[in-house]
Amino acid sequence: MTIYFFVVFGVYFSIVIALWVGWQLTFEKVDSRKSTTTPSVSVVIPYRNEMANLKSLLESLLAQNYPKDHLEIVLVNDHSTDSSSTIVEEFAARFPNIRNLKLAEGATGKKKALALGIQGSTYDLIVTTDADCIHSKEWISSVASCFSSDKVVMALGGVRIDSSSGLFAKMQALEFTSLIGTTASTLFYQQPTMCNGANLAFRKKGFREVGGYDGNYEIASGDDEFLMRKMHARFPNGIVFMSNQQSVVTTQPSMSLKSFIHQRIRWAGKWKYNSSVGAKLLAVFVLLFQLSYVLLPIAGICHWITSERVYFLMVVKLALEFMLLYPVTFFLQIRWRWIPFLILQVVYPFYVIAVGLLAQRQVVSWKDRVI
Question: What is the pTM of this model?
Answer without folding.
Answer: 0.90
